[in-house]
Amino acid sequence: MAKKRDPMMEEYYELDMSPDEATAAAKLPADITGGAHQLNDYMELPCDKLIPYQDKRNSDFLPWPEEKFRELVDSIRTFGVLDAINVRPAQNKPGFYEILEGEHRWKACLEVGLKAIPAHVVRNCTDHMAQTYFSVTNLLRRENTIRDEINGWWFYTEAIRYKRGNEIDKMIENGLLTEEFRRENLAISERQMYRLAKLHDLIEPFIVMLEKNLWSVAIAEPIAYLPQDKQAFLEPYKDLIRNAETAAKLRSLAKGQLDGLEWGKAAIETLLTNKPAVTSDTQKEFRRAASQATSIVKARISPEFYSSTKLILSEALDLYFAKHPEAERKKEKKS
């Protein structure tokens, strides 16, 4: 019985699982004028001469779930690999090739026991080009998690720094992407791209909040602008940050842009619980009053009565509030 096709694997079904060679050929890159043309540097490479892309840093894409990988293995065992992977000559390992896109197909071939895999070799591929190819081809060809989107677009924006706007065109010219594929898959504005890339600055617990759909990108983005130490300080409060407005206020607090509030536990809890703010001026007045009270106790109360200071002050305050009830802070009633 044939297995049910998984929509998340559709690109790979169309390319790796189709026994229709004409369909597979139609997936090969075309030039920017729309006419088909023959591309050089397509060849079968020994699987044992391939290595994963080496400059992933801390921004690798997550591996496929085991079930989906098993389906890819079964398809390659049945039909072979009809969609060539993209590689470049490994710069630090003569005779080897570095995989820019297609690592799962290569690993599936190893499991099946295939000795070779069809590959498109990108010649004269600089580190900058490799970084761009790795990030964009994976972003466009995979069903990505939010972590993949963050890592991928961060990797891409790092690669195109000061060179914005023409990198994908270069990939089309080099046969790594088709114009049609870009048109159908790159449905993201530059603003969205850079917002996702900025989230790479979040500490791990906040990335997890995004993965669990407990935070939106709108909540996470202002927090991503905070230094790592201030993000860590906020981590115990992550479940209380529930909307973008609060996140924006926390960013302003960290920058010292909220009048009368200074970064710290009291100010953060004020913003998160909507309790009346205790301003820095109020705190200074209280410290001044406490110091004056201490001076009065030392001047007016004999040392032998120090143990009764609390009672004396309480009775004095009762007398004062009897005459000035407006000055007394009433206890909040429990709802």
Kindly state the percentage of residues in helix: 40-55%
Q: List the strand order in the largest sheet.
A: 1-5-3-4-2
The value of Rg in angstroms is 31 Å
- Give the overall form: rod-shaped
| Continuous helix count | 16
What's the story with the biggest beta sheet?
5 strands, mixed
**Tally of extended strands?**
5
Order of helices and strands: HHEEHEEHEHHHHHHHHHHHH
Structural class: alpha/beta
* Termini separation: 63 Å
If you had to describe this structure to a student in words, what would you say it looks like?
The chain is α/β, with parallel strands linked by helices. The protein has 16 helices and five strands. It has a five-stranded mixed beta sheet. It is rod-shaped, with a radius of gyration of 31 Å.
Give the SSE layout.
Blueprint: H1 10-17, H2 21-26, E1 42-46, E2 50-52, H3 66-79, E3 85-89, E4 97-101, H4 103-112, E5 116-121, H5 127-141, H6 146-159, H7 167-173, H8 179-185, H9 190-198, H10 204-211, H11 217-224, H12 228-234, H13 244-254, H14 265-273, H15 280-300, H16 309-323
Parallel strand pairs: 2-4, 3-5
Antiparallel strand pairs: 1-5, 3-4
Task: Briefly say what this structure is.
This protein is α/β, with parallel strands linked by helices and about 325 residues long. It has helices at about 10-15, 20-25, 65-80, 105-110, 125-140, 145-160, 165-175, 180-185, 190-200, 205-210, 215-225, 230-235, 245-255, 265-275, 280-300, 310-325; strands spanning about 40-45, 50, 85-90, 95-100, 115-120. Strand 3 (about 85-90) and strand 4 form a beta hairpin.
